[in-house]
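In the previous lecture we treated proteins in isolation. Real proteins rarely work alone, and many bind small molecules. This record shows how such a complex is specified: first the sequence, then the SMILES for glutathione.
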Amino acid sequence: MSLEFYFHPLSSFCQKVLIALYENDTPFTPRFVDFSGEGERADFLKLWPIGKFPLLRDTDKDRTIPESSIIIEYLAQNYPGKIALTPADPDLARQTRLRDRFYDLYVMAPMQQIVGDTLRPDGQNDPLGVRQAKALLETAYNMIDADMADKTWAMGESFCMADCAAGPALMYANAASPFGPGRKNVGAYLRRLMARPSFARAISEAAPYIKFFPMADKYHALYG
Ligand SMILES: N[C@@H](CCC(=O)N[C@@H](CS)C(=O)NCC(=O)O)C(=O)O
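The predicted 3D structure, ligand included, written as tokens:
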């Protein structure tokens, strides 16, 4: 196998795939995405014109795989490891995908909107968009808190793709718009995720870059 993984350690969607790679000790060559030079960005756009990372290149099969969930499914199908992150049973696989979509669309996306707003030039902020993103997070937090009342991981006792999505999504979302003390289950779930060796490794590899996270002060206040 010859896998090249294009990523940045700080990126939530990249951490999601790193968790999957580390869970199964999948060997890969890291390709650090750095768009500070126009040449690097242009080279990346040749691989994936949408310009978003993570991205996986399977050089043996000459395949380029974008999108975090699709990368995790590709790894599961082509390079399975000891942990099946997408269950073989079709009904359980569908439920896993629903939870994975939930974390991407209703936790990662509003978190990115709130964080991204802090980077906008003066006078071009979107207060209504931020309020709507925070309201969406509140709804998502309440749903997760109820869902996680009696489970260890998103699908029960087996760690899965949805947990890979949940870890970075909840960690950064809690900094952008805190869960608050009332939501014990979502807080406990995040603590379990952050203690999981695969995610703990991704977090420690991101530590040198946290100063570039626009809400670094809030991040450090929560997680040290
Ligand atoms: N749907 C994509 C989202 C990826 C994404 O939003 N990546 C961010 C980093 S976390 C990115 O590429 N940002 C750079 C940009 O938008 O220019 C996935 O699941 O991989």
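Summary for your notes: Residues 90-223 form a domain with the Glutathione S-transferase Yfyf (Class Pi); Chain A, domain 2 fold (CATH 1.20.1050.10). The pocket of glutathione is lined by residues 11-13, 51-54, 67-68, 104 (CB under 6 Å).
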